[in-house]
Amino acid sequence: MRLRPCLLLAACSLAACFVPSSDSGLDEAGTTGGETSSSSETSSADTTQVEVGCPPGELDCPCMGDACMPGLICQDGTCVASVCGNGMVEGEEQCDDGNTVDDDACSNACSLPVCGDGLVQPGEQCDDGNAVDDDLCSNACVIAVCGDGIVQQGEFCDDGNDNAFDECSNTCTPASCGDGVVSGSEECDDGNADNADACTNGCMLPICGDWIVQQNEQCDDGNAVGGDGCSSTCTGARCSRATCGRGRCSCRWRRGRRCG
Does residue 150 belong to any structural domain of this protein? Predict the structure, then answer.
């Protein structure tokens, strides 16, 4: 009968081996709290990496539906760079003819040809790629010429017409007396410096009284007064007192002298 306390003590000791210790860290599910926390942190990190590391629509990232950022195309669910020259219009391309000819209807940059792109395309005479209208190539991509209405380098004027008798000549120089073209208020223009021919150096027709002794004139004193040594018809006249020289007569004492 004395064995009962010993058996009871042994039973208690054996049961104590299976009582969870407060230091073991096991929870009711039989796992440690540290393992659960670590697993939760790993899952959170993976989610953050997907959200921040590869935003949808960016290069080499998932497409946003079937769309990607400008300049990218959606291919097999991933945003990739479009390729100019593959014969397919992709991304921001205006055209893609799949060749390397730069001056046809689609440039090697996959853009449609326009005047000012620096490429001489069909129908253009020139293309300097700038917006300067008064250089050697206009903004309409035509070579500058006199008569195009634009005052270019070396031109003094350009009225854009072929009228040689207005204020701007057909050589794009201002009309002037002596240029051989009758323009403006000119009565004539023989293009020379001979003042005694059929057109004066002032581009006026010769008349008696213009101070210039022309052909068939004997004198010209610049007035229409008769009896002063040169008649009003620019013929010689007798005067009681006349001195003649260079087509003019001034009356002095030279009786009977004809001025001419």
Answer: no
CA distance 23 to 20: 8
pTM for the structure as a whole: 0.43
Is 253 part of any domain? Answer: yes
Answer whether residue 140 is part of any domain: yes
Of 183, 154, 186, 148, the closest CA to residue 169 belongs to: 183
Residue 242 and residue 228 in one domain: yes
- As for how many domains the chain has, the answer is 3
Q: Distance between CA 114 and CA 124 in Å, rounded?
A: 10
Segments forming the whole domain that contains residue 75:
57-112
* Per-residue tens of pLDDT for the chain, all 260 residues: 444 443 333 344 434 444 444 444 444 444 444 444 444 444 444 433 344 578 888 889 998 887 888 878 888 889 888 888 989 888 788 999 999 998 888 999 999 999 999 999 889 999 999 999 989 999 999 999 999 999 988 899 999 998 888 889 889 999 889 988 888 888 999 999 988 888 999 999 999 988 888 888 888 888 878 777 788 888 875 554 445 555 555 554 344 444 44
- Rounded Cα distance, 230 and 238, in Å: 8
User: Is there a single domain that holds both residue 118 and residue 108?
Assistant: no
Is residue 84 domain-resident?
yes
Exposure string of 220-257, with b = 16+ CB inside 10 Å and e = fewer, is bbeeeeeebbbbeebebbebeebebeebbbebeebeeb
Same domain, 253 and 226: yes
Q: Residue holding tokens 């000791």?
A: 13
**One domain for residues 93 and 139:** no
Tokens of 257: 């002298």
Q: Of 237, 240, 193, which Cα lies nearest the Cα of 218?
A: 237
> Which of 144, 161, 194 is at the close of a domain?
144
